[in-house]
User: What shape does this take?
Amino acid sequence: MRFDILTIFPSFFESPLKCGVLGKAIERGIVRVGVHDIRGYTSDRHRTTDDYPYGGGEGMVMKVEPIFRAVEKVKEEVTREGLRPWVILLTPQGQPLRQEKVIELANRDHLALICGRYEGVDERVRELVVDEEISIGDYILSGGEAAALVVVDAVSRLVRGVLGCGRSPLEESFSTGLLEYPHYTRPRVFMGLEVPEVLLSGNHGEIARWRRYQALKRTYERRPDLLEKASLSEEDLRMLEEIKKDREDKDGHP
Assistant: This one.
C-alpha cells in the first residue's frame, strides 16, 4: 500500500510515521508513505503557496498551481509502478470517515492525501485533481495534516501483514458495527475490582457470548445510533432485549 501526503509542513509527519504499528509497517516495507512539500512545486522565489481570495474576505486561499503540479508528479510516479492513483482532499466539507469508508480505502493500492490550510484550497483543485473529499469529524483543524495521519493509520491497520494478529482489525470497535467489548489483563484484582469470572473459566463458548453481550450493552449505552445499521442475529436481538429490560429495571421504569 502506498500513501503520498501533500503538505506545506512535511516536518509534521517525521515523528508519527516512525512510531508504533505504523512505524513498523513502514520499516518492513508493507506500507510506503511519501511526504511531499507543496512549496517545492511553486514557481516564484518566495515559494508562495497561498494568496488573497478573489471577491475579498478574511484569510488566505491555497493556490491551485503548486498543488496541481505536485499531484500530477505523484500520479506519474504511481502510474509507472502500475498502481492506480486515488486523490483525496482532507476537508470539513468531505464525507465523514467511518469504518466502512476505511475498509473501502484499504482495498485501493494508492492514496494521495492533500492537506489544506488557511481558508481552504482554490476550488479548481477539486475540479482538476481530486477524486474524493473526506472529513474526520465535524470540527475545524488548523490544517489537513492531522486528518491525513488519521487516514493513513486507520487504513494501514487493514493492510495484510500490518497487525500481528490476523483477527484484530475484525474485532475492533466499528468493524462489526458495534463498539468493542471490555478487555482485561493481569492482575486479577486491582483496587478491589476483579476480572469477570467468565473470562477465567476457560469456557470459550461462554466467553464469546459474554463478549458479544458486552459489545451490545456498550453500544446500546454509548452509541445507540450504531444499532440501527448493525447486522444483528436473533441471539443478538434477544440479548439486546435483555439489556434494555435490565436498564429499565435499574432506572426504575415499569
About this structure: The chain has two domains: 2-156, 189-251. The helical segments are 20-27, 64-80, 99-106, 123-128, 145-156, 168-171, 204-222, 234-251. The mean pLDDT is 94.
